[in-house]
Write a structure and sequence with these properties.
Layout lengths: L2 H20 L9 H6 L1 H18 L1 H16 L16
Helix pairs in contact: 3-4
């Protein structure tokens, strides 16, 4: 074999392996922000995660839990305002 054909074969093999390694998992369509903005979809997925977590997957159910937490707690930027006078017990 010629040196150039060996080099071309190696280059093709390396290119194919790089191309296949770039094909990883795609991101699910449901993001935390999209779930946080759609309470009906969030409620539906919460119920499904309770009963069918293995079918839906841990990643989606974790996003549902995070969206629920963010809807409940808000953005977390509310400062603590203690009362001016201490309570008397």
């Amino acid at each position: 074999m010629k040196k150039s054909s060996i080099l071309a074969t190696i280059l093709a093999a390396v290119s194919a392996s790089l191309l296949l390694s770039a094909c990883g998992k795609t991101q699910p369509a449901e993001t935390v922000e999209s779930l946080k903005g759609d309470p009906e979809r969030l409620k539906l997925l919460r119920e499904q995660c309770k009963t069918e977590r293995t079918r839906l997957g841990d990643e989606l159910c974790d996003r549902v839990a995070e969206a629920t937490k963010r809807r409940f707690f808000g953005d977390g930027k509310v400062p603590y305002n203690p009362p001016k006078e201490s309570p008397k017990f």
